[in-house]
TrEMBL record:
Pfam families: DDE_3. It comes from Cirrhinus mrigala (Mrigala). InterPro entries: RNaseH_sf, Tc1-like_DDE_dom. Residues 8-104 form the Tc1-like transposase DDE domain. This is Tc1-like transposase DDE domain-containing protein.
Length: 132
C-alpha cells in the first residue's frame, strides 16, 4: 500500500522465507510501485521479520535501488498496513465464507473497496501516531 492506493493482493501457499519474500517483491511489489508511484521516488517500509532482514533481502533492495526505512527492533507496530488490514477485517465481519476459495474471493472483493483516500489518510496519520 501507499498513499496513492492499496495495490494488488498476493496470496501465498507457503511459509515466507527470504526467497519467497524476494519473489513477492519482484512479482508484486515492483509492478505495484510502478503503478502507484511511476517514476517518483519512494521508501519501502517493512518490519524486521526474518525474511525481511536477511542479507540476501537487503542485497535485493540494493540491487533494485529501493531505499528501505530503518526500522528499530522491538518498536511499536506503526506500519499503516496493519490499520488497513483492520479496515478489511471490519468490512468482512459478517462474511461467512465456506472454504478457502470463498474466503479469498471475499478478501479480494473487500480489498477492491479500499480507496486511495483511505490509504492516504492512513499514511498521513503516521506522524501523529509516532508523536503519540
Amino acid at each position: 500500500m501507499s498513499s496513492a492506493g492499496a495495490g494488488p493482493l498476493c496470496f501465498l501457499r507457503s511459509k515466507v522465507n527470504a526467497a519467497v519474500y524476494q519473489d513477492v517483491l519482484e512479482h508484486f511489489m515492483l509492478p505495484a510501485a510502478d503503478q502507484l508511484y511511476g517514476d517518483a521516488d519512494f521508501i519501502f517500509q517493512q518490519d524486521l521479520a526474518p525474511a525481511h532482514s536477511t542479507k540476501a533481502t537487503s542485497t535485493w533492495f540494493k540491487d533494485h535501488g529501493i531505499p528501505v526505512l530503518n526500522w528499530p527492533a522491538n518498536s511499536p507496530d506503526l506500519n499503516p498496513i496493519e490499520n488497513l488490514w483492520g479496515i478489511v477485517k471490519r468490512k468482512m465481519r459478517y462474511a461467512r465464507p465456506n472454504n478457502a476459495e470463498e474466503l479469498k474471493a471475499t478478501i479480494r472483493a473487500t480489498w477492491a473497496l479500499i480507496t486511495p483516500e483511505q490509504c492516504h489518510r492512513l499514511i498521513d496519520s503516521v506522524p501523529r501516531c509516532i508523536a503519540a
